[in-house]
Amino acid sequence: MARDQPWGVNGGEPGKRARKVIERADGTTEIVGNKVDDVEVREGDQLHSII
Question: Rounded to an integer, what distance in angstroms lies between the CA atom of residue 34 and that of residue 39?
């Protein structure tokens, strides 16, 4: 199991890491890191959680 994968529960296989992407109103995209609290979000931006 890779160090950065979430562990399985009740004997399950390791999980996959989630990703977060901001789709800006102007059409550009930005990958958001985990555990960040300083991401500027503007009107029209959309946050996508990919699991």
Answer: 11
CB-based contacts of 44, cutoff 8 Å, min separation 6: 24, 25
Q: How far apart are CA 14 and CA 8, in angstroms?
A: 5
Q: What is the pTM of this model?
A: 0.62
Q: Per residue in 6-44, pLDDT tens?
A: 777 887 888 777 789 999 999 999 999 888 889 999 999
Provide the pLDDT for residue 1. Answer: 44
Q: Describe the strand order of the beta sheet including 19-23 as a list of residue ranges.
A: 29-32, 19-23, 46-50
Residues whose CB is less than 8 angstroms from the CB of residue 6 and which lie 6 or more positions away in sequence, other chains included: 14, 15, 16, 17
